[in-house]
Amino acid sequence: MAVNPFDLIKQFGNIQEKMTDVQSRLKEIQVTGSAGGDMIQVEVNGHLEILKVHISEEAVDPKDIVMLEDLIQSAFSNALDKAKERIRQEMLSVTGGINLPPGFMGL
Predict the structure, then answer these.
(1) 75 falls in which pLDDT band (50, 70, 90)?
(2) How crowded is residue 91: how many other Cβ atoms within 10 Å of its Cβ?
(3) Which domains does the chain show, CATH number per domain?
(4) Do the beta carbons of residue 9 and residue 27 sit within 8 Å?
(5) pLDDT tens readout for residues 31-54
(6) Which residues, listed in sequence order, are joined to residue 35 by a DSSP beta bridge?
């Protein structure tokens, strides 16, 4: 089957337009990652910017700072995983359901 290069150029233009739309929507995505039974919560947006951090009093033990650090790290990782998944879902709308290769755009 012959590929029409003009069709490819037209599709590329459509994808560029959709990508611009997705980029603007990413700022609106907000996900919350948590750890320690929700004692630590981290909220990030689709640009992977930290919006909010919540640490409950029960998580703070001055004698065990290492545990608190681990919980914060876990909550951040959880939030980033959730945000990346939402970004992947948004990108699927641009690619027409074609999965992007692992690592594409840092995802």
Answers:
(1) very high
(2) 19
(3) 5-97 (3.30.1310.10)
(4) no
(5) 999 999 999 999 999 999 999 999
(6) 40
